[in-house]
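Appendix B, record 7
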Amino acid sequence: MHGGAGDIEQNNLITGKCHMREIANRRGSKSVVARDCEMTDKQLRYRETTGAIVIDTFGRYLFQLRDNVVGITNPGKIGLFGGHREGDETFLECMVRELHEEIGYFVPADRFEHLGSFEGEDIDSEGGTIHGHLFVVRDIPVDALAITEGSLLIVEPVELAEIEPRLVPTTRLALKAYLNT
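Structure tokens (predicted):
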């Protein structure tokens, strides 16, 4: 659909059994304006996610301090950069895309080390299930980053115990796995 002054385009997207109508203005900004989902409650609570332990060029941990807003998982907590798988992308492709989107710095797939995967009860979402993969990426230059979601929290290795109570549960598990390898 093309209109007058706003030049708004409308697209129908299909994600699984969930149909979304998306609009885009002339500048490319997009908004989902309607969802028509034919998913069961159980399907709505199933997530496929990735996350990365990001380490800068000085050996410090780079975390995402999540926005403290209603409607996001774990608002105000400290988490890993990462996100939800889209379409038929692999977990590694998802991690590369999500990290680039969230920190504004492209890291090629061959720089990621696979830390592990998990599947089962979603400890971040009551009553949900999750399938996730965790990665590690090193030598990220902090001065080249442009954070687009939440804010950047830089933590020295000796300070990890101080922030532990504020960590997202999956972040806590990822760090435990990483530090025990």
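Remarks on this record: The longest strand covers residues 129-140. The longest helix spans residues 91-103.
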